[in-house]
Amino acid sequence: MINADPQELAKFGDLAHRWWDVDSEFKPLHQINPLRLDWIASYCPLAGKTALDVGCGGGILSDSLARRGAQTLGIDLATKALKVAQLHAMEAGTEGVEYREIAVEALALERPASFDVVTCMEMLEHVPDPASVVKACADLVKPGGWVFLSTLNRNLKSFMLAIVGAEYVLKMLPAGTHEYARFLKPAELAQFCRDAGLELQASRGLTFNPLTQRYSLGSDTDVNYLLACRKPV
């Protein structure tokens, strides 16, 4: 069985044509992309590296990784989103990036220990078995390489801000984008990483200020958070 939810794939497929519209439902991804890209590069300078972006969607992060000098592969199971990513790379003239429709678990069997950097951002809360994705990411990264993950914490605050606030009050995201039961506490995700043989190096929180309309990275991991992990040599 493929570790994917058909409803989730259809949801993002229906919005695929809006992926690169910075004022669309994907505006938050465009806003946080520079923050997460700089955070990744602070641990692993990207020039000359090989990078894998798991759950790449329309290619916002994949494109940026390639522009930082990493030979980048973006993978996803949402066919329409991948076509948008490929079209954007062609139109923007982005070099060093390619896209494939393949499950991360299948790629892990095909190309183990092949990448210096593996990213899986804003995806784990959309799959039935996030631990399987983390294990596959660990299998795909080279010894000494980095795995960067991001998702949503599971608590009352995250429910109120990420679902009620973002989807229904501020309407930053379409209603139904997230399912609270699939959110992951940092301790749960950290355990997935340890079980996969990864060593947790750092965590950061991503917060949004509705007054300034700006995102920032800090110590508050109550809602959105990121983990940096390394595979032992």
Describe this structure in words.
- The chain is α/β, with parallel strands linked by helices and 233 residues long.
- The chain has one domain (6-15, 24-231): Vaccinia Virus protein VP39 (Rossmann fold), CATH 3.40.50.150.
- The protein contains 8 helices and 8 strands; from the N terminus they run H-H-E-H-E-H-E-H-E-H-E-H-H-E-E-E.
- The protein has an 8-stranded mixed β-sheet with strand order 3-2-1-4-5-8-6-7.
- The model has no long low-confidence stretch (mean pLDDT 94).
Number of domains: 1
Basic shape: globular
Determine the strand fraction and express it as a percent band: 15-25%
Between the first and last Cα atoms, what is the distance in angstroms?
32 Å
What name goes with the CATH superfamily? Vaccinia Virus protein VP39
Helix content: 25-40%
| Annotated CATH architecture | 3-Layer(aba) Sandwich
Main structural class: alpha/beta
How is the main sheet built? 8 strands, mixed
Helix-strand sequence: HHEHEHEHEHEHHEEE
Tally of DSSP helical segments: 8
Strands in their spatial order, largest beta sheet: 3-2-1-4-5-8-6-7
Q: What would the CATH topology be?
A: Rossmann fold
What's the helix and strand layout?
Elements: H1 6-14, H2 27-43, E1 50-54, H3 60-67, E2 71-76, H4 79-92, E3 97-101, H5 104-110, E4 115-121, H6 130-140, E5 141-152, H7 156-169, H8 186-195, E6 199-209, E7 214-218, E8 224-230
Parallel strand pairs: 1-2, 1-4, 2-3, 4-5
Antiparallel strand pairs: 5-8, 6-7, 6-8
Keywords: Methyltransferase, S-adenosyl-L-methionine, Transferase, Ubiquinone, Ubiquinone biosynthesis
EC number: 2.1.1.222, 2.1.1.64
Pfam family, one: Methyltransf_23
